[in-house]
Amino acid sequence: MLIQFDQLQENIIPQFRGGEGNTVNRMYADPNNKIMRGFLAPGCTIGLHTHDTSSEIIYILSGKGKVLCDGEYEPLEAGSCHYCPKGHAHSLINDQEEGNLEFFAVVPEHGA
After folding, report:
1. Residue 112: band (very low, low, confident or very high) from pLDDT cuts 50, 70, 90
2. What is the dihedral sign for C-alpha 104, 76, 61, 99?
3. How far is CA 23 from each of CA 1, 16, 55, rounded to the nearest angstrom?
4. Which residues of the chain form beta strands (DSSP E)?
5. Would you say the pTM of this structure is higher than 0.90?
């Protein structure tokens, strides 16, 4: 199956998961997975959240930022890949003054 992100609707999500600013993405979703490409502008975050029934893989396409995972900060830059297993918590943060933090993410469902 081919997913053409440029042909999917752009979503602008204010304060996603309690974060700051907007998360912008284009997403394909079915009952088993969410597959998305998106970005955080400078100063924007995806709030801290726990993956109770899923995990998440985030690959950084461009920009710099950090992730807070289980209480520890990890730096991110283009080419970095962050994994948040089921039952763990994380937050994605663009703490830069300039430039978007662009990412590709996959969220597979594992069930309760």
Report:
1. low
2. positive
3. 26, 6, 19
4. 10-14, 22-29, 33-40, 45-50, 56-62, 64-69, 72-77, 81-84, 89-93, 101-108
5. yes
DSSP class of residue 3 equals -
d(CA 104, CA 57): 8
Which residues, at least 6 apart from 4, have a Cβ–Cβ distance to it below 8 Å? none
Report the pLDDT value the prediction gives residue 111, as an integer from 0 to 100.
74
pLDDT in tens, 43-77: 999 999 999 999 999 999 999 999 999 999 999 99
| CB neighbours of residue 39 within 10 Å | 18
- For 28, the token pair is 């394909």
Contacts 24+ apart (CB under 8 A), 59-62: 59/103, 59/104, 59/105, 60/101, 60/102, 60/103, 61/37, 61/102, 61/103, 61/104, 62/99, 62/100, 62/101, 62/102
Tokens standing for residue 39: 């970005």
